[in-house]
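Lay summary

Proteins are chains of building blocks that fold into shapes. Our project writes down both the chain and a compact code for its shape. Here are two examples, one after the other.
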Amino acid sequence: MKSAHLNSRLLVAILSMDVGIAVLLCGQFTSWIPALDYACVQAAASNKEVQDFDPSSGTISSHTLAQQPQKSRGFQRISVTDDPDRTFETSPPSPLDYAVLLQSLRNRGYNHVLLTTRMTWDDEPGIEARALSDRLALFKKSVIALPVTRGATAHPLPAPLVRALIPFDQIKGDHQLIPTVNQVTLPTHVDGGEQTFAGFHRIESTPSSPDHIPMLAHWPGQGLIPSIELLAIMINHDIDIADLLIDCGQHIRLGQKGPVIPLDIYGQTPVPKSPAPATNELAPLTAAQLISLKPTSPEASITPIGLIHATGKNTSPTNTLHPTRLTQILTLSKTFLIPEKTTHYRKLPLWANMTLLLTITLAACWGLTFHPINSLLTVTTLAILLFPLLLAFMHLTHHWFGLSAPLASLISAYLIPIRHRKRTTPIQKYRTSKPKPVIRP
């Protein structure tokens, strides 16, 4: 009896082992099985790590994340007041006034500028707008803000938004819940050329949330467009559009060495709950103070970004961002986690995977019994233990193994029935047989 039971278990072990080996071999020639194994590693990883997977070599690179405010370029806040000293031609400033301000920034060594005031005027500026566009073109990167909405008829994308467009091949996951927009409600009068990018400051067709900051909007058939906050963080860390990697519902990665921004399924990130780490902040300047300074490069080791916003009673209505959101930009640029240390994990060779698979399969079949509940408990326990085993294995050996083959073997071991033929004596057979009717004479 014991021999028959043992033979049944060995047969189940062989069959379930064959299933696991088949999955292992299929993983050598297909892409979806390695992708599934990598997804299991991602699920077991810490939320303070991000991974990269190289399918050709099977190597996983794990990046530990930490706050690194010293890598932030920093911002030089420049406020546009009501101009009591009459530095500008008009208040709010005209396109020509902004051209003078931008020229002053450039003469003092600034290579990047972020304009959070409207670049639109009631009267068509004409030649003045062209002068302002020429000054924007002097910067390595410049950012302007535009309002967007969803309307019945789609409008063409303005050129600055086209340059900031994130193509679908850089997007992973479902982006259907990200707000859809197809119109710019207030077009800009300026465009500095190839290095001028636009981000949305408001989605008029979607209510804002006090607890979240919008990062992305979906322009149908084109891709995703960034918010002005996302563009500000990008130029703060020298990140190009082509470097963005978006995993909808998970995060936005700003290149291999840039910040990792948490992202929900609606394309938003949480409002920062703690202030930015203390660093050497530049004292804010008014536009008049900046223009009056002698042309000289900033003293900081990394050239800061000129952040232009309005603070006067007459000029504040031209702001595209509330002061709270402006402060959030400064905070976000320093509080997002950045890859600090990289560890490489190589995939186990085929023979080592088969050895591990044999061990797991024998352990499963040893615990199988004729009672379905006990068998299910054994298989479930082993399946749960695979995840801590994987993490411990990665930590101790810097190698990893796929979970698809062991899980396939465990499921097969449970589904393959174990049948044991019971032997009965003639007396047992007589006692268990149905009683025959007695015919009385």
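And here is the second example, written the same way.
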Amino acid sequence: MPLPAPTIIFLTKNYILLFSERYITFFLKIGVRTAKS
């Protein structure tokens, strides 16, 4: 049984937010390391 569209949209938004948050944190860590060295 396929998921209803609103559920898919909700999961996709949450996944993008979670992914982008980790991505930003990852880049900030690299930026801090680069600035220190």
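What can we say about the second shape? Helices lie at 5-36.
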